[in-house]
């Protein structure tokens, strides 16, 4: 299928993009890698009257370490993160293997994934898990939105229509963190995803609610200890799940239990 007719606008600066979004209002959508939006447009699930292309804006891509903080530009591709040597932020690069297929990782962007706000998307889970801040710029300037407050519902965020995501800020290292997921076929959307940070005693789940779901777990003790097996049982047992077409609550709960166990194992060895 082909998308409905739209008007194309190319922004050359963040200020220019914000100006276009302010002028065009709710009828405009930002496009970068296009891996989510363009597909939705082709199926007529999204019909923006205007597209604001931000791919030619300098300074919105790249990965920068500042002490214990990691900054990732909104136009940084999944593939760039996958190939990066991130040290004690290595969970970010390791998690990229779950993002679609190579062409998607090569074109898709970090900011685009966050803005799309799919509750099973890897970047959404990682942002909540590691307490990232989403930096957005609008007519009033820049503001930072905690990831835990950014995702409001299915494909819905706290971003204003005239704001543009410019950067993600990860405030602390996560040397013992991991993400894993399950899909019916490799590269498909995940049915369930689980991300864990053993040092923060946190689990974040995708596919069990309209947004990433956080769960605090009993302390795993010292930095060299492994989490109790009860983590997986406790998290799976705490969820309120319903049968849905194609997947029962019982099956989804079992996936949660298995994936939390796997993520804990991976986080323990940092592999």
Automatic annotation (TrEMBL):
UniProt cross-references to SUPFAM superfamilies, sorted A to Z: CO dehydrogenase flavoprotein C-terminal domain-like (SSF55447), FAD-binding/transporter-associated domain-like (SSF56176)
Keyword set, alphabetical order: FAD, Flavoprotein, Oxidoreductase
Gene3D superfamilies reported for this sequence: 3.30.465.10, CO dehydrogenase flavoprotein, C-terminal domain, Uridine Diphospho-n-acetylenolpyruvylglucosamine Reductase, domain 2
Domain FAD-binding PCMH-type as annotated: residue spans: 1-175
Keyword DNA damage: no
SMART domains noted in UniProt: CO_deh_flav_C
Superkingdom assignment: Bacteria
Sample GO molecular function, one term: FAD binding
PROSITE patterns found in the cross-reference section: FAD_PCMH
The keyword Membrane is assigned to this record: no
UniProt cross-references to Pfam families, sorted A to Z: FAD_binding_5
Protein name: Carbon-monoxide dehydrogenase medium subunit
Organism field: Pseudonocardia halophobica
């Amino acid at each position: 299928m082909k998308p409905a007719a739209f008007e194309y606008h190319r922004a050359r600066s963040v200020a220019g993009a914000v100006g276009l979004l302010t002028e065009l209002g709710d009828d405009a959508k930002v496009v970068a890698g296009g891996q989510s939006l363009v597909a939705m447009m082709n199926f007529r699930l999204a019909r923006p009257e205007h597209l604001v292309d931000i791919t030619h804006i300098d300074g919105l891509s790249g990965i920068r370490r500042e002490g214990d903080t990691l900054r990732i530009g909104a136009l940084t591709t999944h593939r760039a993160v996958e190939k990066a040597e991130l040290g004690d932020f290595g969970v970010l690069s390791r998690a990229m293997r779950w993002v679609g297929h190579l062409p998607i990782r090569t074109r898709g962007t970090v900011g685009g994934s966050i803005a799309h706000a799919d509750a099973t998307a890897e970047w959404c889970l990682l942002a909540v898990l590691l307490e990232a801040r989403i930096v957005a710029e609008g007519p009033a300037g820049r503001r930072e939105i905690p990831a835990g407050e950014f995702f409001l519902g299915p494909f819905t965020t706290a971003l204003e229509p005239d704001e543009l995501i410019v950067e993600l800020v990860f405030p602390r290292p996560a040397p013992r963190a991991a993400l894993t997921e399950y899909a019916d076929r490799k590269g498909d959307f995940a049915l369930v995803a689980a991300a864990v940070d053993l040092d923060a005693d946190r689990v974040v789940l995708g596919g069990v609610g309209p947004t990433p779901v956080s769960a605090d777990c009993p302390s795993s003790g010292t930095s060299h200890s492994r989490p109790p097996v009860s983590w997986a049982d406790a998290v799976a047992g705490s969820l309120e799940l319903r049968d849905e077409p194609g997947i029962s609550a019982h099956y989804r709960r079992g996936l949660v239990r298995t994936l939390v166990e796997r993520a804990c194992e991976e986080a323990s060895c940092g592999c």
